[in-house]
């Protein structure tokens, strides 16, 4: 039996429709896509590992490390399929997760429906005891009442407990003591907000600990099954999870804090795009990741994805901030919409074509899969338009039924609008492309950016099919479709560093800043973050420290990076200068001329990561050698509004410097890149496809 080596690494990404597997053997990549198994998600990983190890000619025992990301936690929250959870909170704060912030996210909707809280009112328990905003005990914890609550929870058939006390971010003693008392009578997992999300703002903090507790039993069970079954097939290597902030953590940490896995798959995609940006020296990039269920768009500047401390799951109003479930954890900032290959097309009451957010997923899948799906999906529209080869989808593993696609499209959409199959399919694709374009514009504007200033990096099984059209709508002149784009997130897992971000809220005005106290706080955060990283990294670790600051009286704060060194006597002056410089960068100018306007620090963040090796640099080339297609296919062209003859070229037949004039389709095992009449394509030195708008200055 061959022993495992650390230079054989495998990434596994469970998506809503496909599970992507990428095996890297000393720089040589083997990949595959298999349909996600909802009943036993780990089965798809095992099936994929069997495929890539067979193709590579190795045994599973030779794999040195497995890195895994999954949408299971996200889906459990969206579909409300978690454990029955009890919330234990401070007396008087029982309804915080239902009252929310009292913000009307849709100002003029008279029938506004707030999202239903994750835990119903009858499953929320209150106890006396109070910590003040400065961390002082104002009222002792009622331990006798907690013991009674434990009895009620034990008798109630609960599967998990969340504890969220007011101001626990400032002093966690009451939460820890409550956990001790409950644990004496309960054998179910207990999550406390001071460990899950030690940040200000009780609604976000309470909701986050509730979400963690809600998915914890399910995720712990899944991760335990995965490890057992991997060992049974001979893969006894360590398994690490990618978290929403883009770093790697141990399975044990992921089992305890599964809310950190929300958005883990999309985070891998953003890391993949950032690696491509660094490879080509691209400082302004928009990543476009379209899979089977959703599309994700992320801005990447200076080779790093934008990050945030809070994001929303399951928004009930499209693009509407405040309409979803807030999760207060470090996360790569992106916008995600229900626009994937499996997104269902339908007609609304006003006779308009709509797509998503409901997805056909892998079970039953789009109509063309022949797995029982009857409703039309984006993949059905792409097939009818000629973008897909029905005999060569997923490397020929899935034979597509074009007639089933036509029937579904006509029955559910075309006949209602008196359109033929081709026109209906074009309308469906135009709607989904416009939805994605609008999402990209909104995301860029919210961050003060112009979307057309960026180069696009497109990946995911469906993105290369739509990327050129999306660039036409957004005014983007260049788009890279990387090698391995169909399994981009899984490849991104292999590029991710071991990393963890520790946060702590401590409201401090600069006039009362005490360097010694802050140095102690940051030392504790560094020790915590580095401790998580050390579970998988033995090399050098670097720390990034950020102070989230604001003018006193403002509702929200801005990130201010500070040096990783102890604060001295000049700390106040330095922090003031850094804050004003960053404030000016965000808003155009700092606030001046107001006497007594104080600056305050709300939260400290320490992000620890191990140092990754530098990537090899490549120069973008526009190519000289024209490549003529040997075969052709009729594909609907959006510019002319009619089918045209597109050249069909196998990606593996192209070499660096080859140029393909649009219209054409470059096909490969896991995806196809559609080159519309507006674009040409050039193969880069690393195998990536660069789409260049005809007539641009590229």
From TrEMBL:
Residues 9-184 form the Hydantoinase/oxoprolinase N-terminal domain. It comes from the Bacteria. Residues 532-683 form the Acetophenone carboxylase-like C-terminal domain. InterPro entries: ACX-like_C, Hydant_A_N, Hydantoinase_A, Oxoprolinase-like. Pfam families: Hydant_A_C, Hydant_A_N, Hydantoinase_A. Residues 205-497 form the Hydantoinase A/oxoprolinase domain. This is Hydantoinase/oxoprolinase family protein. It comes from Mesorhizobium abyssinicae.
């Amino acid at each position: 039996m061959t022993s495992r080596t650390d230079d054989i690494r495998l990434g596994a990404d469970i998506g809503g429709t496909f599970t992507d597997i990428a095996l890297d053997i000393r720089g040589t990549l083997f990949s595959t896509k298999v349909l996600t198994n909802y009943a036993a998600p780990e089965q798809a990983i095992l099936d994929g590992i069997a495929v890539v190890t067979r193709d590579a000619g190795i045994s599973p025992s030779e794999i040195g490390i497995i890195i895994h990301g999954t949408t299971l936690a996200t889906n459990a929250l969206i579909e409300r399929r978690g454990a029955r959870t009890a919330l234990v909170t401070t007396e008087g704060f029982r309804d915080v997760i239902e009252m929310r912030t009292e913000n009307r996210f849709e100002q003029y909707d008279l029938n506004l429906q707030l999202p239903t809280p994750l835990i119903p009112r009858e499953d929320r328990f209150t106890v006396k005891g109070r910590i003040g905003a400065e961390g002082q005990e104002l009222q002792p914890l009622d331990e006798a009442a907690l013991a009674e609550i434990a009895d009620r929870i034990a008798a109630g058939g609960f599967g998990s407990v969340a504890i969220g006390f007011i101001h626990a971010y400032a002093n966690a003693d009451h939460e820890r003591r409550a956990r001790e008392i409950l644990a004496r009578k309960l054998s179910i997992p207990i999550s406390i907000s001071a460990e899950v999300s030690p940040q200000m703002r009780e609604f976000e903090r309470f909701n986050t600990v509730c979400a963690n507790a809600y998915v914890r039993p399910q995720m712990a069970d899944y991760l335990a099954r995965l490890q057992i079954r991997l060992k049974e097939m001979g893969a006894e290597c360590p398994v690490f999870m990618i978290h929403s902030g883009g770093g790697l953590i141990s399975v044990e940490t992921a089992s305890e804090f599964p809310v950190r896995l929300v958005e883990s798959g999309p985070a891998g995609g953003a890391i993949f795009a950032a690696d491509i940006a660094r490879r080509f020296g691209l400082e302004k990039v928009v990543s476009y990741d379209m899979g089977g269920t959703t599309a994700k768009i992320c801005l990447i500047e200076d080779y790093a994805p934008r990050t945030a401390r809070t994001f929303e799951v399951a928004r009930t109003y499209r693009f509407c901030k405040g309409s979803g479930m807030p999760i207060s954890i470090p996360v790569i900032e992106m916008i995600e919409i229900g626009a994937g290959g499996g997104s269902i097309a339908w007609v609304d009451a006003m006779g308009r074509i709509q797509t998503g957010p409901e997805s056909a997923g892998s079970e039953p899948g789009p109509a063309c899969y022949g797995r029982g799906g009857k409703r039309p999906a984006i993949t059905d529209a792409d097939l009818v338009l000629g973008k897909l080869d029905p005999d060569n989808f997923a490397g020929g593993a899935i034979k597509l039924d074009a007639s089933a696609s036509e029937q579904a499209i006509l029955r559910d959409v075309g006949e209602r609008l008196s359109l033929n199959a081709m026109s209906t399919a074009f309308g469906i694709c135009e709607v989904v492309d416009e939805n994605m374009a609008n999402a990209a514009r909104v995301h860029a504007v919210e961050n003060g950016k112009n979307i057309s200033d960026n180069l696009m990096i497109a990946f995911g099984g469906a993105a290369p099919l739509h990327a050129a059209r999306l660039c036409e709508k957004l005014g983007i002149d260049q788009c890279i479709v990387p090698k391995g784009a169909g399994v981009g997130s899984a490849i991104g897992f292999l590029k991710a560093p071991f990393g963890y971000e520790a946060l702590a809220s401590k409201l401090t005005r600069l006039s009362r800043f005490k360097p010694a106290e802050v140095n102690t706080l940051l030392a504790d955060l560094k020790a915590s973050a580095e401790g998580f990283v050390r579970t998988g990294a033995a090399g050098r670790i670097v720390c990034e420290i950020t102070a989230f600051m604001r003018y006193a009286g403002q509702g929200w704060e801005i990130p201010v990076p500070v040096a990783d060194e102890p604060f001295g006597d000049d700390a106040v002056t330095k922090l003031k200068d850094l804050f004003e410089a960053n404030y000016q960068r965000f808003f155009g100018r700092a606030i001046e001329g107001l006497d007594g306007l104080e600056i305050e620090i709300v939260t400290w963040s320490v992000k620890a990561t191990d140092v990754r090796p530098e990537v090899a640099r490549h120069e973008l080339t526009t190519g000289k050698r024209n490549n003529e297609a040997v075969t052709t296919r009729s594909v609907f062209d959006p510019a002319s509004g009619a089918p045209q003859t597109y050249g069909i070229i196998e990606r593996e037949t192209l070499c660096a410097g080859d140029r393909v004039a649009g219209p054409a389709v470059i096909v490969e095992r896991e995806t196809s890149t559609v080159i519309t009449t507006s674009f040409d394509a050039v193969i880069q030195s690393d195998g990536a496809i660069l789409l260049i708008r005809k007539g641009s200055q590229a």
